[in-house]
Amino acid sequence: MVYAFMLHLFVSKGVCLNMKSSTSVLIFSLFTFLFGLVVLVFFNPNALQELKNLPLTALNLQELELRSLIALFLYIIPGGLIIVFSLQLFMNSPNGVLLYKLVKVLVLLSGLLWLVLGFLPYSPFNENEYPKLVFLTVVFLTIVLLILLILTISFGLIFKQKQIFNITLIATIIVFSLTFLSLFVLNSDTWIRTNLSIGLYFIWLVALGYFFEKREPESKW
Q1: CA nearest 110: which of 70, 79, 75?
Q2: Are 111 and 10 in contact (CB under 8 A)?
Q3: Phi-psi sector, 160: left (phi>0), alpha (psi -120 to 50), beta
């Protein structure tokens, strides 16, 4: 109900139609994500240790106190706000180039997947759920890497957008390196590296939103 109300509020205020609010939308997404982590740790002190053993995609744990509230702030609201940002991209930037369309679809998919995680409680005691968890995590990171790679090429080689290119390039290198290590160097730090990649994506989205908010009106993006 809270999520439906918030989404209705954004649409009724024209947020989906106005790229000028993209930074606010993504900052709020990052804030609610971090607030969800604070609530998780505050009401479930042992969960902080579990962050070493579980990815951020698996924190909708069935055994948690206030699980529904944590899922709302950690997954549902941030995912919904990323969807709002993707709608802003669709409605306020051209669709002529296939790569641009692909980026918008991928951003939308990342938001949808993150939102859906809020409705998929996970139990570490059920071994049958672990392969599904790994699959969803790999899919999410693949989407993130594709977004970063495409935009690195676009900002660097096509539009010569130096500032956002540098930020995106650094994020791409870090996420790619951490993901590679997580996939091929399996040890106690695997999920820590994965969590750093996911966290960096949420932070980088704020920079991306700021770029689109401040870009020139005649920009091809």
Answers
A1: 79
A2: no
A3: left
> What would the pLDDT profile of 140-197 be if each residue is shown by its tens digit?
999 999 999 998 888 777 666 788 888 999 999 999 999 888 777 766 677 888 999 9
- Report in angstroms the alpha-carbon separations of 112 from 84, 115, 127, 137: 10, 5, 25, 13
Q: Could you tell me the pTM of the whole model?
A: 0.86
Tokens linked to 98 = 């296939």
Within a domain: 200: yes
Residue 33 lies in a domain: yes
Total tally of structural domains belonging to the chain: 1
- Residue 220 located in a structural domain: no
Contact 210, 23 (CB under 8 A): yes
Q: In one letter, which amino acid is 199?
A: G
Say if residue 211 is exposed, middle or buried (CB neighbours under 10 Å; 0-12, 13-18, 19+): buried
208 located within any domain: yes
- Look up the domain containing 93 and give its range: 2-214
